[in-house]
Amino acid sequence: MDLIAQNISHRYDDTAVLSDISFSLGAGEIVAIIGPSGCGKSTLLRFLGGLERPTEGAVYVEGEPPAGSLNPITFVFQDFALLPWRTAEGNVRLVLEDHPLSAGERNEIVADVLARTKLSDFAGAWPRQLSGGMKQRVAIARALSVNPAVMLMDEPLSALDSQTRELLMDDLVDLWGRERFSACYVTHNLAEAVRLGHRILVLSRRPGQIKDVVEIDIPLPERENHAAELAPIERRLWTMMREEARAADRELIDA
Amino acid sequence: MLERAPDAATTKARREVPFRGAGFQNKRIWLAGPIVFIALLGFWELGSRTGVISPIALPAPSEAMGALSDLVETGMLWRHLEASLTRLVAGWTIGTVCGIAVGLSIGLFSLARAGLAPLVSALFPIPKIALLPLFIIWFGIGEGSKIATIAFGTFFPTVIATYGGVDNVDRTLIRMGQSFGLPWRSVVRKIILPGALPSILSGARISASIAIILLVAAEMIGAEYGLGAYILMAGSLFALDQLIAGVAMLSIIGLCVGWLIGRAECRLLDYRT
């Protein structure tokens, strides 16, 4: 199943937020979207997932989602969005309860995704008992449980400390190696973008436009050992973004 | 160089950083409450026995206890309690259930908010006791008017607590539910209601106290049994020992209700601590 954004523009009252954005996301592909703060990356992601409507343009899906996909387009949020009154297991269960599954199937899915995210021992823990990294793993388990065709990840690692971020990035790479999910990964962290993105869309400051598209051919699992090749890409992205970030920063002060 | 022995120059200058972080924290001190309570009763009793407190002004606690044990022996206590608790439970339940329903619809639907929220604000401050004659005409002099008074009194604070709670539910959680394709009723039942529950429960604490206050007011008109009727009768006879006994019973009911709601909070909000 492909996800296609076509000529998306958006404005809040008089402020143009996004301007004429088009791209497509193929099966098994991770597209990273980077850009200075306030450039509308998260807004774009909400359009892709149908949580908000753009003023102009539209988002399409092409092809059928894989069989057994309960929620083809699934979000992973920056602040985890776990229900504090449900345990780790209960949070996963939440998104299965409204689907016609037998109790056995449901238990099987829950046990499976918790095992895949190494959370089996924490099934009964409340969110407040879990560290940030663990909470995001629960959120990822919840996303996996509905067997998505596309994952929309909105700065999923930004609320975590740098060590946890590294660990979780490794986990995501492992996971992609096994599941080949496709994902749209919004981040402001260039290291995450070059580590996880097959393609990197660089957005300009507001109104966000696609300024450049950088493709990285090195397969995800091998990137750890190709730091030398990735470093120049990261630097190039930064030079591209620096001016934008600086201008965006000034804009916020002027506003 | 860290472990330098203090020489003349450093000892002169060295002081411990003063501790400034004390206070502003609630510690649990179990015995203080009962001790204050017992001490107060003790002084009161002592004052009455020594004649400092005139028996005309205030009867001794032991006399009030005597009145209470009379009530127990004659079996009248259970009659009064039964009548009062029935009214309290019926009125509070009706008021709370309707209040949660209306509060939820104000929280969920813009039309209900636009139409009902101002009405609630307008009617909430009216003392329901003032409307008692109206309730008597509408619901009869019997149980109906008494239950209605309590129900109306608990309804409004519950409405306000409920929609305040709904307004405070984290929007990202609702977004999350929508992004997973949860149907509307599931979003309400599994995300919005549990999210509003802490606020609804603290509203219940307030509405329960209001219910007890209104109970006495309602029972002062046309009630044969009930703690309010008992207190009113004792008051008109200037049987102060009975009056104190009745008021003590009310305060015990209040304590019990507060404790029950505390238990409910522990049960329902066990995820918090």
The count of DSSP E runs of length 2 or more, i.e. the number of strands of chain B, is: 0
Mean pLDDT of chain A: 88
Q: Output the strand order for the largest sheet of chain A.
A: 5-6-7-3-8-9
Beta strand count of chain A: 9
What does this structure look like?
- The complex is a heterodimer of chains A (255) and B (273).
- Chain A is of the alpha/beta class and 255 residues long.
- Chain A is built from seven helices and nine strands.
- Chain A has helices at residues 41-48, 88-94, 103-116, 132-145, 162-179, 190-196, 227-254; strands spanning 2-12, 15-25, 30-34, 56-62, 73-76, 150-154, 182-186, 199-203, 210-215.
- In chain A, α5 (162-179) links the parallel β6 (150-154) and β7.
- Chain A is globular.
- Chain B starts with 7 loop residues before the first helix and ends in a 5-residue tail after the last helix.
- The longest helix of chain B is centred in the last third of the chain and has 36 residues, at 184-219.
- Chain B is mainly α and 273 residues long.
- Classes of the chains: A alpha/beta (255), B mainly alpha (273).
- Chain A binds chain B through residues 49, 51, 70-71, 74-75, 77, 79, 81, 83-86, 94-95, 97-98, 126-128, 142, 146, and chain B through 172-173, 175-183, 186, 190-191, 194-195, 197, 269, 271-272.
